[in-house]
Every structure is written in C-alpha cells, then in structure tokens.
Amino acid sequence: MAGTLNTALLILSLAASWACLWVASHQPLWPALVAAWLFSLINNTTFALMHEAVHGLGAKSARRNELLGIMAGLAFPTSFSMQRVAHMGHHQRNRTDLELYDYYLPSQSRLVRNIWLYAGNLLGLYWWSVVFSNLVYLLAPGVYRSRFFVDRLAPALGFGPYVADLVKLPVTRVWTEIALAFGYQALTFYWLDLTVVGVLTCYWAFALHWSVLQYADHAWSARDVRSGAWNLKVLAPFRWIALNYHYHQAHHQHPQVPWFELPRWVDAAERQPSFWRVYFSLWKGVRPAPPMGAAADLAFLFPSQPPAE
C-alpha cells in the first residue's frame, strides 16, 4: 500500500510542480507569485517522499524504494545517496554540539552563528548551498572531495561533519544521481519553455520554505538526540501537503514509522508550538547554548504564558 500511495503522490506532486513552474514563467505577476508560493509547498512533498525513502519507508521493495528516492531527488535537485547519508547523520548528531544552529558555544563566534542562522535558515541560502555543492560535485568531483573543501570550506559553512561523511560515498553513483537531477531540471526547463525568472522565483520560494522548516522543527527544543524536535502546529492542509513532516519529534522518536501513521505517535500532552511562533523567534538570533541534556526552552518560546501543567 505505502509504495503505491507514495508513487502516486510523487507523480501528482511532480505534475503539480510543472504546472506551477509554467504559470510562474508565462503568466502575469500575481498569478506567477501564487504559483511560486504553491511550488514552495508542493516541492516539499517530493522532498518528504525522498525522506521516506531515506528511511526505507517509500516502498516495500528495496529496489522500488531506491527508485522512488532517486526520482524524488530529481526535483530538489540532489543525489538520493547523499541525502540518505546526510539525513542519517542528522539523526545521530541532532542537538549535539555538531548540529546546533539556534545556539552558539563558548568557543564559537556569535556573529558567525547568526550569519549561518539568518542567511542559511531564514533567507534560504541553506538550500542554495546544497544545490551549489552538488553542482561542484557534478563539474569537479575532485574539488568537492579535496582537503580544502572537506576540512576548511565545509566547516566554515557549517557542513563539516556532513561533507566528511559524503566524500566516502562511491563517486560514480553520486555523480550519476546528480547528473540525472540536473538533467531533469534542464529537460523540464526546455520542454515547458520556462523562463529563468520564473524558475528562480519558484525555487527561491521553495528555498525559503525548505531552509527554515529544516530548523523550525528543532529550534529551542531539548538538547536530546532522540527527542530534540517539535511536533509543530500548522493548519492541517499544509501538514498533509508536507506528509506530516511537521510532526518531527514523533519522527525522531520513531524513525521507522511511515508518514501516514505519525499522528498516532504524537503526544497530545506535550506542548506543541506553532510553526510561526518558532519562525519569528528565530529572528531574535542565536543564544548561548545550554548543556547537552537541557530541556526545551519553553520560557523563550512562550514568554508571556505560564508553563503547561
């Protein structure tokens, strides 16, 4: 059932994203902006499907699961193999000193950490940096795997542990998946007669949405690898489009539960901040990091409300 459902959702989301790209490229300003906004939501559906495949939940067959992940990665665009390694690394490093973007450690520059937060998560450069690094891998895999890139550039951008894991992957497989992803983008651009402005508008909207969502579901949560995330409150239609991605704590606690079963694992007794509450709190900038094991900073998120009993 899961495989058939996810495959159908992938086809529908890709078709809907094509429609959004076409409208953004060929229609007047306001319809184009609405199309870009819809694209930012719909393209996250394909990302959520790739996320399911990363955990082996995209389809019952390992081969179909792999194919689903690769196909979903085309729309990002990225390599499914790279995404799988990076995301599994996220589950291992979540809320540790190696993956902490809402706080800064005593040895770290507050200014640099704020640049990462504002430029990366809030202004969308997180997504652009992933795509740019994939382009570097496509054009010059040796540069991506060089000591300069791994030991100096990636850590300076906040991706040090991830890139160190990614360079261990087979070069041919990763390069082929990235080539397929950029080839898909080029063919879509040609077949739909898209414009550069229309495509950039859609992908910038997606970059803003995706980049902030990657950390809004973690910011100020407990410094705990397994429970350091939120089950965010959002309007149900938006949560459905994202395939329950906002139920992120439930996912971290039960990573082998498929997206359509996650609501059953949400603890209604625990406080659930809204996506927008966390989003606006991030604009206040990074804060000194509490020790590993510290509880969620509910006082910061809900300063005018008494703690839940």
Folded structure, characterized:
With about 300 residues, the chain is mainly alpha-helical. It contains 15 helices and two strands. A two-stranded parallel ribbon has the order 1-2. Helix 1 (about 1-25) runs antiparallel to helix 2 (about 30-55). The mean pLDDT is about 95.
Keywords, separated by commas or semicolons:
globular; 15 helices; 62% helix; mainly alpha; two-stranded parallel sheet; 309 residues
Brief digest:
The protein contains 15 helices and two strands. With about 300 residues, the chain is mainly alpha-helical. The relative contact order is 0.14.
Write the layout of secondary structure elements.
Blueprint: H1 2-26, H2 29-54, H3 62-74, H4 80-93, E1 103-104, H5 110-122, H6 125-139, H7 141-144, H8 147-156, H9 160-166, H10 171-191, H11 196-216, H12 236-241, H13 248-253, H14 275-282, E2 287-288, H15 298-301
Parallel strand pairs: 1-2
